[in-house]
Each structure stands twice: as C-alpha cells, then as structure tokens.
Specification:
With 739 residues, the protein is an alpha+beta fold. The chain has helices at residues 2-14, 16-37, 51-62, 87-101, 142-157, 177-195, 198-222, 230-260, 265-292, 300-331, 341-349, 356-366, 368-383, 398-411, 430-442, 475-495, 504-538, 542-566, 572-575, 587-615, 620-652, 656-687, 696-701, 710-723; strands at 71-77, 106-110, 125-132, 161-166, 391-392, 419-424, 447-450, 454-455, 461-468, 498-502, 583-584. The protein folds into four domains: 1-37 and 175-345, Up-down Bundle (Multidrug efflux transporter AcrB transmembrane fold); 71-166, Alpha-Beta Plaits (2-Layer Sandwich); 353-394 and 523-704, Multidrug efflux transporter AcrB transmembrane domain (Multidrug efflux transporter AcrB transmembrane fold); 398-509, Alpha-Beta Plaits. The strands form three sheets. Strands 6, 7, 8, 9 and 10 form a five-stranded antiparallel β-sheet that branches. A four-stranded antiparallel β-sheet has the order 2-3-1-4, with helices on both faces. Strands 5-11 form a two-stranded parallel sheet. Helix 7 runs antiparallel to helix 8.
Amino acid sequence: MSTFLFRVGRFSYRRRWVVIVAWLVMLITAAAAGLTLAKPFESTVTIPGTEAQRTLDALAERFPSSRQHATGTIVVQAPKGKTVTTAAVHQVVDGVVGKARDVEGVTTVTAPSTSGGSVSADDTIGVITLGFKAKSNAEVSTTTRTALEEIADHAREEGVTAELGGAAAPKASGEHPAGQTIGILATLLILVLVFRSLRAAVIPFATAMVSVGLGLLLLLTASHFVTLQGTSMTLASMLGLAVGVDYALFIMSRHQKQVRSGVDPADSAGLAVGKAGSAVVFAGATVVVALAALTVVNIPFLTVMGLAAAATVVIAVLVALTLVPAVLGLLGHRIASSRLPFLRSSSKRRTKPTTLGMRWARVATRLRVPVLLLSLAGLGALAVPAASLQLGLTQSQGEALRAQRLIDEGFGPGYSSTLVVLVEGSPGTAVPAAEQLTTKIRALADVGSVSAPQPDGAKDAAVVTVTPDSGPDDARTKQLLSGIRQARGSVERATNTKIGVTGTTAVSIDVSDKLSGALPVYCAIVLGLAVMLLAIVFRSIAVPLKAAVGFLLSMAATLGFVVGIFQWGWLASLLGTETTGPVISFVPILLVGVLFGLAMDYEIFLVSRMREEYTHGRPAAEAMQHGFAKGSKVVTAAALIMVSVFAGTAVAGSGSTTGIGLGLAAGVLFDAFVVRMAMVPAMMAFLGDGAWWMPRFLRRILPDVDVEGERLTHRFAAAHSHGTQQPAGQSATSGEPVR
C-alpha cells in the first residue's frame, strides 16, 4: 500500500493543477445537485418497531383527529393575590386566546377551563393549548412564533405572567458564531505553532473545508432520497473538519521535516503520503467502520447519521491523499520556511530533534507502574457518575423551561407525562375491555388520574388517558408504564382485544430503552472489528487489545463527565445550564462511535512510529521512546485541534449539539492525553518485545500491509543510492525505480 500511495502523492504533487481542478469540478457539481435537490430535515426522533410508535400509528388510524400535528402552549399565571378567574385577569387571558386564533399557522386554540383540567386547583395558573398546521415542532415558522411571543409580551405588560411552551416556544438561538470563531482561531494557532509557518498552517484548514463542503453538499443531495436529521449535518461538519485538519497535519508535518532535511519536494510528498498516508488510510478506516457499524443496531435515524458522517470521513481521507500534496506542490521548497522573522528563526531551531517527548517517554518507562495506576485512578473517578446515566429525548431550555416549571407548579409533574392507552377489538369488546383495564390501572402506584374510556366512531376501539403523579423523566413513570403493560395481559386474553400504550412519554421511554439495549451490542461489534483491523496493521495481539481496553476506560470517563454536566449540574454556572435532566438518548451511542474511531486514530499514528523504529532494528524500549518522541507532538496537536473544533461546536450549538460537542471534546482530552500519552508508553514499556508478538499461523494468514512503509523506505533508499550516480540534476526517482 505504501508504494501505491507514494505514487499517488508524487503524481498529485507534480500534476497539481489537474488534481485541484478535479476537486473544484466535484465541488461545483455537488453544489448544483445539493442546492437543487435539498429537502427540509426531520426534527423528530422515532424508532419504528417500538410498541409506543406502533400504537401511535394505530391511534392515528382509529382516531383521525389525533393525527400528529405540532402542538404548543401558552401558560398564564395570575398576579399575586389574584386568580385567572378574576375579572381583570380573565379579560387579559381572553384577549390572548382571541389574538392567538388570528395568528397565521395556528389552527386551534383551547382556552383554560376548570372543567377541562387546564386550570390549576388554586385557579392561579391556566394552560392555553394551541394546534398548528405544521406536522412537527421544527416546521412551525419563525413568523408564527414571533407573533405568539408578541401576544405573550402584551399579556406581561398587563401584569399577567405568560410563557410559551412546545411548538409555540421561540426556537433555540442556534448558532453562536463566537464559539465557532474561537474554535477556528485556536485551530489556526495550533497549526502555526506546529509548522512554524503561517502559509503552511492555512493548508490543512483550507483542505479540510473542501472535505466539509463537499460532504455537506452530498448530504443535501441525499436529503432528496432519504430522511435526514438536522443533527446529521452538524455531526458530519464537526467530524469532517476535525479529521480533515488532522489527516492533513500528519502528512504535512512529515513532508515539511523531509524537505528541511534536503529531500526533493516531489519525492518528499510521495514519501509523506506513502508513509503517513498509510496510517491515515487505516485511521480513517477505523472511524468509518465505527460509524458505519451503527447500521447493525437497526435504528434508522442513527444509521443515516452514521453513514453521513462516515461519508465525510472518506472524503477527508481522499482529500488528504490527493489535494493536500497538490497544494503542497504550489509551495514547493517554501514549505520549509516562513516570511515572518520570529517563525523563521523558530523553524530553524525546530530542525534539531526535540527532547520533550523523549524525556516523557523515558519517565513513563522508569515509572510505568505508577503512571498506569494514576491513570486508572483518574479515569475511574471520572467514570463514577456514568453508573447513574439516564436517557431522554428532549431537554427544555429558555422560555419552554419556564413554561414547564409553571405547569409543574400548578398541576404537578405528571401533567406533562400523560400515557395514552389504546384498546382495539370489536364493537362489543373494546369498551368493556377498556373499563376492566381502567380498574386495574387505578390500583397501580403513582397514578394521578385515569379518564373514562373514549370509543371511536365504530366503537371497536377505545382510548384511556392515564396521568401519573411523577414527571416524564422520573423512574416511577417508567415503572407505571411497565405496570400497565403487565396488567393488560389478562384483559387481552379475557376479551380477545389488543392493548397498546403510547404518548410522548411512552415514546421517549421506548426509544431510550431501545438505544440502551443497542449500546452494548454496538460496542462489542466495533471493538471486535477494530481489534481485527489493528492486528492486521501492527501484526500484533497485545497492541490491539491494549488499544481496545484503553478506549473503554476513556469512554467510561467521558460518559461520567457527560452525566456530571447534564444530570448532576457540574459547571452549570460556567456553561449557563438552566436545569439538569436526562442525557439525550442518542448522544451516548454517537459518542461511542465517533470517539472510538478517533481513539484508534491516535493509536495508529502514535504506535505506527514506534513500530517503524522497531522494524528498523531498535530494541523494544528504545523503539517506543524514539517513536513516541517523533509522534507525540503531532498527536498532541491533532488532539488539541479536535478539542478546539468540538468545544467550539458545543458553545455555538444547543440541545443535542451541545451534548455531542462537550462529550467529544472531553473524550478526546481523556483518550489522547491520559490513555495515549500516558498509558500507551507505560504499557509498551511494560510489554517490551511482547508488544509485537503474534502467533506464526496468524502471521501467515493476515496480510502484511506495511503501514510503517518499511518496504518503501528500502526501495527509495536503493533508488536514491542509484540516483546519486546519475548525471547532475536528474531526480533519483526519475527512472521510476519505486514500484
């Protein structure tokens, strides 16, 4: 592979304009297709096949009026000492109801009613229910939301508290450019410090933007044919930018060192792509495997999200192997210098071997047991909160959170966690079965109220509404849902009916349970695939197993950190978190997929340098130290770039984007700086030659991919030796000796 990639890199360098124009043509074509075929993204999360979703679909068929449309609320609270039935307050509330009916996009408005259960027991809080033309909350227009906000503002001016909830609430402020700008500036600063050249630092960022741009345009095109979540775009852009910069960084750092040491730039580009590019290919493959493996959990929106991100990573790898050397061809020898005096002098000093990485590698060798124990203790402490991980679908913020708090104050938390029971049978069995089940439900714990059965027009189906005493995220509500599903069995058998439970709370619980059950299976699959891939790359048994165990440790610490932030309220004042609550259900499994791929990236980039030194004949301990000294600076820079991108996205986004960004930033910190920078050298020193042992039968079976480029090194050295006897000015590789 390294020989093939050498040719690719050198061709791209020499035929730079052909390669650059080819990528531009692809961008223009993708832009035309994407902007023409793009469709709106889906905002709701559903998992076909769960009981709650099946029952919800059946409910829409039996009761057409219940077909899913966006709903919202305006929660009003009377001034202190008054009630919503007080004449002055009642007049204001009636005005809100009347004005809301005139808002474009609003189809139904239901005024607060004591008999309807939408006025609190003390008459101080009322709920105005709104129905919208839009089918989902995300489709409710900004114009409609703004008009409703103006109505609420007018009520506040009259002394009545009014808060908007559900689809009526203002959309999250969305992107905050300051966070993204800080992330980009931090990335550029790190690249300048690595390359000691401003023009060289711009290249990885520019080529990564090509990867992201092409990936997002292809996703827009794909949205015409498949349903995409808005989070798919965020994940693809975030991951594409991070790996795009990192992959270019690994290739360019080797190229720059080689040019500074006197290697011809064209040959250097080929060597950099042949050696570092081999690691990039396998590192990218691990990320793609981890993301594509989301398909096996059989959850449609996660499958699409994973494949979308995987496609962007594939593009980033191709850009690093072709476009990066092509752009390097525009710089030529200038890649080794800088026009800025302080960077120029610093780059000259950088030609001397650095000793910081070597010193730490020697410390890790001498103190390998304490380093391992301290790392385990630190990661273990951070992982403690993960034991209390709770999953949910949404987290209210801003005005929606204030509306929810008013509802909880006036009606109790169960008001927002209603369960809907659908009984399907015949005209003579549906209602009696519903009545029998109602009696059983009233005997269960945590039941606030149970409505009388409501039959459909044909009287072969009936609906019962159950209001718990506890909130939607409370464990008691989940127990009540389980209790209803257990109690229905005897009723179904006795009446020959079919009974299902649905509602927003039931859907959320079922989705969370499905994702929780899929997580261990997914982890086992990606770990197994990665161990096999790393065994091929390093021709070792211990290195892949060590990498997998290290990832499990860093992942446990990451989940603990996420739980600490969102459930326990760590850093709440710093992050501006208004409330604690469950972690959004799909965040953990996405974190596992992305972080696993990135962890294996760092493992490959770092350990491949150790392997390269070992194959050159150094003893195991010395090979680890020299390989770590050469690879640690670039891996550290790559990790800091990842953290900058992910943290910037977390600050810039909201909702699930914040959770994903913070989790990825923390996960990269834990994995890169604790596992790879501390535990890997300590464990490699502990294993010695055993790190590179593999049974003979496996050595014969597994292909030798030569990721360290050993064969390329020998062939290039032989070609260079032959080239020194050629006429002056003729390239050592002009005769194409590298095959």
